C-alpha cells in the first residue's frame, strides 16, 4: 500500500474526519486489522485563514509547500490537501513539493459524471463559489454546468463555514439556512449539490435533501484509498 500524505488542519474538525474515513475505507477494502499507511502534517489554521482573507495566497502556498516537502521526506507517495479552498494553489504545491497531488475537483467531477448529471449546485467558501479555479475545472474537464447561489446567500454560507463549522459550532438554524439555499439551486435546475467545503458535511447529510449530495471529503478520502491500493 502506498503512503498517503495529508496536509490537514484546515480546519482540524474536517481533518479528523479525513483520518477516520481513510482508515474505514482501507479496512473495508482489505478487512482484518488493516488500516491506512499515511502521514499527516497538521497546519495552524489561523495562519491559513488570515492569508486567505488578506489575499496573501503566495504565503499560503509557501506554508502548504513546506508541509508537502515534509510529507515527502516522511515517506508519502502522493499528496492530499484536506480542503477545497486551498486547491486554489494545488498546482504550485504539487510542483514545488515534488509530490503528485490527488485533486479534489477531479474526484468530484468524476463522481458527478458517473452519476450521469450535467448541472449541479456548488456550496463552499466564497473563494470556491466566486473564483474560477474550482468551477472552471469542473466545466472545462468534465463538461459540468455549475450553479452558485446569489451574492447574499453566498455570504450566508461563507459565514456559517468560517464563524461556526470551522470552530466546531453546529447550529440547527444554520442547517435550515443552508437547506433554503439548496432549495434555490434546485429550483434553478441543479440535479445534485456539491458540498464544496470539507466542513459542510458536519452540518448537512443525504437525509436532509431529496437530491444527491456530493460529499467532497468522503469522495476525496475514498479516492485516496483506491490510489494507495492501486
SS element count, helices? 10
Describe the sheet with the most strands.
4 strands, parallel
Strand-residue fraction? 5-15%
Spatial sequence of strands, sheet with the most strands: 5-4-6-7
Low-confidence residue ranges: none
Helix content: 40-55%
Topology summary:
Elements: E1 4-8, H1 12-30, E2 38-42, H2 45-53, H3 57-73, E3 78-81, H4 90-97, H5 104-114, E4 119-123, H6 126-130, H7 132-142, E5 145-147, H8 151-163, H9 172-187, E6 193-195, E7 213-215, H10 216-229
Helix pairs in contact: 1-10, 2-3, 3-4, 5-7, 5-10, 8-9
Description:
This protein has 230 residues and is of the alpha/beta class. The protein has two domains: 4-103 and 218-229, Rossmann fold (3-Layer(aba) Sandwich); 105-216, Rossmann fold (3-Layer(aba) Sandwich). It contains ten helices and seven strands. Strand 1 (4-8), helix 1 and strand 2 form a beta-alpha-beta unit. Helix 8 (151-163) runs antiparallel to helix 9 (172-187). The protein starts with a strand and ends with a helix.
Offer a concise description of the structure.
This protein has 230 residues and is of the alpha/beta class. The protein is built from 10 helices and 7 strands. It has 2 domains: 112 residues, Rossmann fold, CATH 3.40.50.1860; 112 residues, Rossmann fold.
Note the main attributes of this structure.
alpha/beta; Rossmann fold; 7 strands; globular; single chain; 3-stranded parallel sheet; 230 residues; 4-stranded parallel sheet; 2 domains
Amino acid at each position: 500500500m502506498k503512503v498517503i500524505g495529508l496536509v490537514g488542519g484546515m480546519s482540524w474538525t474536517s481533518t479528523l474526519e479525513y483520518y477516520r474515513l481513510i482508515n474505514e475505507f482501507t479496512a473495508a477494502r482489505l478487512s482484518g486489522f488493516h488500516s491506512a499507511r499515511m502521514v499527516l502534517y497538521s497546519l495552524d489554521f489561523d495562519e491559513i485563514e488570515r492569508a486567505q482573507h488578506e489575499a496573501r495566497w503566495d504565503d499560503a502556498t509557501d506554508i502548504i509547500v513546506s508541509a508537502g516537502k515534509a510529507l515527502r521526506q516522511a515517506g508519502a507517495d502522493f499528496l492530499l490537501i484536506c480542503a477545497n479552498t486551498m486547491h486554489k494553489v494545488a498546482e504550485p504545491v504539487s510542483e514545488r513539493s515534488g509530490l503528485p497531488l490527488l485533486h479534489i475537483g477531479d474526484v468530484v467531477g468524476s463522481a458527478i459524471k458517473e452519476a450521469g448529471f450535467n448541472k449541479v449546485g456548488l456550496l463552499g467558501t466564497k473563494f470556491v463559489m466566486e473564483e474560477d479555479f474550482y468551477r472552471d475545472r469542473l466545466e472545462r474537464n468534465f463538461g459540468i454546468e455549475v450553479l452558485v447561489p446569489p451574492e447574499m446567500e453566498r455570504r450566508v454560507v461563507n459565514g456559517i463555514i468560517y464563524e461556526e463549522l470551522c470552530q466546531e459550532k453546529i447550529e440547527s438554524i444554520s442547517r435550515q439556512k443552508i437547506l433554503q439555499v439548496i432549495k434555490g439551486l434546485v429550483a434553478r435546475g441543479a440535479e445534485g449539490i456539491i458540498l464544496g467545503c470539507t466542513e459542510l458535511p458536519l452540518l448537512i447529510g443525504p437525509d436532509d435533501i431529496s437530491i444527491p449530495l456530493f460529499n467532497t471529503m468522503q469522495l476525496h478520502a475514498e479516492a485516496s484509498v483506491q490510489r494507495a491500493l492501486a
